[in-house]
Amino acid sequence: MSNTTSSFTWEFEVTGIYQTDAAETNQQMIFMRHDYLDENRGYGRYYVSWLVAKLSRGANADGVSHAIDKVFENSTAETRTTTEQVFVKEQAQQFVDLSWILKLVVLAVFFTLLLIASNSMSQSIRERMNELAVMKSLGFSSGKLIASVYMEALLIIFVGAASGVLIAAFGLDVVQQKLATFLPGIHIQASHYVQIVVMIFSLALICCVSPALSIYRLTISKALRT
Q1: Sign of the CA dihedral 190, 192, 195, 196?
Q2: Of 88, 125, 146, 167, whose CB has the highest number of CB atoms within 10 Å?
Q3: For residue 157, what is the enclosing H or E element?
Q4: Are 132 and 215 in contact (CB under 8 A)?
Q5: Last residue of a domain, which of 92, 124, 142?
Q6: Would residue 45 count as lying in a domain?
Q7: In which band, very low, low, confident or very high, does the pLDDT at 13 lie, cut at 50, 70 and 90?
C-alpha cells in the first residue's frame, strides 16, 4: 500500500511484539492506529474492509446483523454483516476446489505408488523362490517367511514415506512463511502423522498380498527343480 508520497515505505514506532505457541495464530500481523494509516495512505481513505462487533451475552446475532445492515442500506458503503462462524466458513470455501484437486492428485499418486510397490515386491519374490524353498526346507514356516517379506516391504515404504514427510514439512514451512497473511496457521497436525503411519502399514500389507499367496502355495520340490 502506498502512502501520500506514492512511496511504499512506511515509518512506524514499534511499541510491542506478540508471540504465541498456538499454531493456528498468525504471528505475522501488524496492529496499528487506524487514524494514522488513514491519513497517510494514498488511496482508500476513510474506508475499511471489515469491522468486528462484539455482542453482549444473550444478544440476538441475527437481529444485530440486520440492524447494522439497515443503517448502511442504499449508501455508497453497504455492509453485509454475518457471524464469525459464517465468515470463516465463507473464507474456507474459497479453497474447496483446490482442496479437492489436491486430494485427487494425492489419490492418483498413492494408487501409482501402490502399483509400483506391489509389482516390485512380486518380482522380488519370484526371483527368490529357490531361496525361500531352501528356507522352508530348513524349517521356516510360511507364516515366518510372509512376516519377513512384510517387514521388508514395510522398511522400503517407511524410508520413502519418511523422506516424503520431511520434504513436505520443509515445503509447508516455506508456504506458511509466504502465505501467512492469507492462510494463517497452516501446519501438520498430530492426526496427520497418525494417518501417515496407518497408510504405511496398510500399503505394506496390500503390497504383500500377492507375494504372501506365492509363498503359501510354494512347494519345496517344485521350487528346487526350477
Answers
A1: negative
A2: 125
A3: helix 142-178
A4: yes
A5: 92
A6: no
A7: confident
